Amino acid sequence: MSGHETTVGIPTQHAEKESSTPGKGRFAPSPTGDFHLGNLRTALLAWAFARHTGRDFHMRIEDLDDRSRPQYIHRQLGDLETLGIDWDGPEIRQSQRLDRYEEIYADLRKSGALYECYCTRKELATLASAPHQPPGSYAGTCRNLSDDERVAGREKMRVANRKAAFRLRTTNTEICLEDRQLGVYQAMIDDFVIRRGDGVFSYNFVSVVDDGEFGVTQIVRGDDLLSSTPRQIYLQQQLGYATPEYAHVPLVLNTAGARLAKRDGAVTLSELTELGWSVGDIIDLIASSLGMGCAALLGEAEVTSPAEEGVASLGEEGVVSPGIGGTANGCKQTVDLHDGGHCRSDIRTAREFLTVFDPKLLPRTPWYVDVARLAEGPQVWFSA
């Protein structure tokens, strides 16, 4: 078997025992700041998906980023507890698993599955993409260098006081997955980074290792990460891990169409609380944005069902066709979720949210939030 086809086995003594439940869901935040409303919404969805399907729910702290700070870990977990989101077992911190990542990385190098890449960011930005792959895909520039070319590449790194990155030698294959919410998505796999030039392991690598070794069978996260999923599935196959069920959910955007961010103001739990929002109001807000609370009030006859047909493009990363999720307007003729979802519901706790949670009714399009209106408090928001 050639190097790029090598499958690296995972020693069974390192794997966690299977749970008696159908597996595990998880939420995996990076502690680089306080959660905003979009983070809280995705966390509530990940928790609800897991509990709805009888899975354990685990918390993983992805703290390898040099912007991570211990104080944000405590504040993020505190916000989740305040909302009523619970999890099973202690939190897993990636910073405490570096030895395990090193072991698997060493196995990959020994098998010939990795190669050094000497391309700078500037060079990568100007290089053409690999044939038949999305723009931005790595063209394999350093894949088949001669010994002399590799010596020159290492000298180039030495002069620049940098180290080479390590990429996975893939088989230039296409990966097709069926997302629980978005349907069929397919994309070609390029030779992606496993370890960066600064020595930090890539998100794709550590995420796959952690999900595989801790028995994660369901991953719910923002749809901005959908394009990363084919690479992760390919790596799962190389490392001998099972592929989890995926559900990518829409992001929360501001009225300008940009991803909601803490700099927008009035979007963190503490900021909303200071503006008069109770925890119950915030759960109500999230539930109504998803059509859940509104659906409970309006009755099944008023809830729309999927209407899209065919295959639609999703940016330039791949192709997606509709899945199981509901339409953007979960509350027909009463609430425009695209415009903010201003209906009231009777849902005031995470447990109440879970009782009406139905993945089939989730919207597929982003939730656009008028932050200025949020800042006026729940009475104004829900009066629209």
TrEMBL record:
Residues 26-274 form the Glutamyl/glutaminyl-tRNA synthetase class Ib catalytic domain. GO terms for cellular component: cytosol. Its EC number is 6.1.1.-. The keyword Cytoplasm does not apply. Gene3D superfamilies: HUPs. Residues 1-32 are annotated as: Disordered. Belongs to the class-I aminoacyl-tRNA synthetase family. This is tRNA glutamyl-Q(34) synthetase GluQRS. GO terms for molecular function: ATP binding; glutamate-tRNA ligase activity; zinc ion binding. It comes from the Bacteria. It holds the Pfam family tRNA-synt_1c. InterPro entries: aa-tRNA-synth_I_CS, Glu-Q_tRNA(Asp)_Synthase, Glu/Gln-tRNA-synth, Glu/Gln-tRNA-synth_Ib_cat-dom, GluQ/Sye, Rossmann-like_a/b/a_fold. It comes from Arcanobacterium buesumense. Keywords: Aminoacyl-tRNA synthetase, ATP-binding, Ligase, Metal-binding, Nucleotide-binding, Protein biosynthesis, Zinc. One of its GO terms (biological process) is glutamyl-tRNA aminoacylation.
